[in-house]
């Protein structure tokens, strides 16, 4: 049986994933879709909509709900993970506590993203371990954040077949192609998850990147990044079109000021959008994903995940930007270190594609610095080592300052204690 298991299926993104599966039913003939979550209310509401969507389009697709992880994983062909340990209230803490210490609070980078990684990596390690017993040949497609750090942990410390996914590279490439008026323009990029740059935009054989930078083109910003932009001089200095998350690096004081003055964190806004969506989903007359879903910053994750699964299943060799071990494609990283790079996707997984535009010295320095942070952060998540945690934060460009790192670390560790048992064990 062709079975897809979705872990964290109470997410309001799930209808987009179901929509993608249904639209590809001729080339991705899923027979059973198992939706698993620990939040019974959300699973029931989102799951019921998923069942209505399937019944409306393809009665052959069985959509089943469960709160049992092993049941969901048993004999799965693909496992798609979109978990949020501690849910949105934990994200709110990641975003609201750091600004009180003069640090940026963000869910995927800086000290906020660090704590999300600490909470999430052990849970993903458990999922990978259970997959080894229940579905050893399955592919894990992870779009839980921080995606790159999770891939770094799983690909180094488990045998699971997996790729990390993010919607930002898709949006960046689409935006650049639109800017040059060529939907077939060839795009190259280098970097890590939420730390990347487009380094080449070729249209009909002509390199357009220099002209775009000179015009101050910086791409389109997703809904979850506060309104701001990179100015022309900044673009020329870094030498590429930056991932929108680099606003937190290049404009950090303004981003911090915005966070300190805002009435609501992004997590609180997302809670409101989520409740609106759940009300819509509960309508028994609804059998398709609503437009409101696009207001969530991560929309298209699910679409990308289904497209990736289709490329693996049909051995297409299609190009996707994913988080995998770079295999030497980026010579300034170790072969085993995970990067966010273009790969040919087939039945045997991801084959990194050669990169001609390797990036500027600025990009290389920042990538190597943040990769060193990620390696230490993974160590801290797996061992509960306070020393590794502080060492990681002292490297990160958005933290660095030891007294602030220490005090904010202690505050967040206390706030998230129920989700970080490894630190309590290590401290005994």
UniProtKB/TrEMBL annotation:
Signal peptide bounds: none
Keywords: Cobalt, Glycosidase, Hydrolase, Iron, Manganese, Metal-binding, NAD, Nickel
Binding note for cofactor: Binds 1 NAD(+) per subunit.
Residue ranges the record marks as coiled coil: none
Positions bound to Mn(2+): 166, 194
InterPro entries xref list: Glyco_hydro_4, Glyco_hydro_4_C, Lactate_DH/Glyco_Ohase_4_C, NAD(P)-bd_dom_sf
Domain Glycosyl hydrolase family 4 C-terminal: 190-399
Site keyed Increases basicity of active site Tyr: positions: 107
Binding-site list for substrate: 91, 145
Record keyword DNA damage present: no
PANTHER family per record: 6-PHOSPHO-BETA-GLUCOSIDASE, 6-PHOSPHO-BETA-GLUCOSIDASE-RELATED
Family membership noted in the UniProt record: Belongs to the glycosyl hydrolase 4 family.
Assembly description: Homotetramer.
Name used for this protein in its record: 6-phospho-beta-glucosidase
Organism annotation: Candidatus Avichristensenella intestinipullorum
Lineage, broadest ranks: Bacteria, Bacillati, Bacillota, Clostridia, Candidatus Avichristensenella
């Amino acid at each position: 049986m062709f079975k897809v298991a979705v872990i964290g299926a109470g997410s309001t993104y799930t209808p987009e994933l179901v929509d993608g599966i249904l639209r590809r039913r001729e080339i991705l003939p899923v027979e059973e879709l198992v939706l698993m979550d620990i939040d019974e209310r959300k699973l029931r509401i989102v799951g019921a909509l998923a069942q209505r969507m399937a019944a409306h389009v393809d009665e052959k697709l069985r959509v089943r709900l469960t709160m049992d992880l092993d049941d969901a994983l048993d004999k799965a062909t693909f496992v798609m993970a979109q978990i949020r340990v501690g849910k949105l209230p934990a994200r709110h803490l990641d975003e609201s506590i750091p600004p009180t210490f003069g640090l940026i609070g963000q869910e995927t980078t800086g000290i906020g993203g660090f704590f999300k990684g600490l909470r999430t990596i052990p849970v993903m390690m458990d999922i990978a371990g259970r997959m080894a017993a229940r579905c050893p040949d399955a592919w894990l497609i992870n779009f839980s954040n921080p995606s790159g750090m999770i891939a770094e942990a799983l690909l180094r410390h488990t045998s699971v077949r997996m790729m990390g996914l993010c919607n930002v590279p898709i949006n960046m490439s689409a935006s650049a192609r639109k800017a040059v008026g060529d939907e077939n323009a060839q795009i190259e990029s280098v970097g890590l998850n939420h730390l990347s740059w487009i380094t080449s935009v070729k249209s009909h054989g002509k390199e357009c990147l220099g002209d775009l930078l000179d015009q101050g083109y910086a791409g389109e910003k997703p809904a979850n990044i506060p309104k701001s932009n990179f100015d022309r001089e900044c673009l020329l200095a870094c030498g590429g079109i930056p991932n929108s998350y680099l606003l937190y690096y290049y404009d950090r004081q303004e981003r911090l000021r915005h966070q300190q003055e805002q009435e609501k964190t992004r997590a609180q806004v997302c809670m409101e959008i989520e409740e609106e969506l759940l009300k819509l989903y509960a309508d028994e007359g609804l059998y398709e994903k609503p437009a409101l879903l696009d207001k969530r910053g991560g929309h298209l994750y699910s679409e990308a995940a289904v497209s990736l699964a289709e490329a693996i299943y049909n051995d297409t060799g299609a190009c996707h930007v994913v988080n995998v071990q770079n295999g030497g494609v980026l010579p300034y990283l170790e072969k085993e270190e995970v990067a966010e790079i273009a790969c040919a996707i087939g039945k045997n997984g991801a084959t990194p594609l050669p990169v001609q535009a390797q990036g500027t010295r600025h990009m290389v320095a920042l990538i190597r610095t943040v990769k060193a942070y990620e390696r230490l952060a993974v160590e801290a998540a797996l061992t509960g080592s306070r020393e590794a945690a502080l060492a990681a934060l002292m490297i990160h460009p958005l933290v660095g300052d030891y007294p602030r790192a220490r005090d904010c670390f202690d505050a967040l560790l206390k706030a998230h204690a129920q989700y970080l048992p490894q630190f309590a064990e290590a401290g005994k």
